[in-house]
Amino acid sequence: MAAINWLAVIAATLVGFAIGFIWYGPLFGKAWMSSVGMTEEDAQKGNMAKIFGFTLIFQFIMAYCLAMFFYGSGDPEAAEMITAGTGSFYGFLTGFGWVAMAIAVNALYEQKSWQYIFINGGFWVVVFTLMGLILGAWK
Question: For residue 128, how many C-alpha atoms fall within 13 Å in the half-sphere facing its CB?
Answer without folding.
Answer: 24
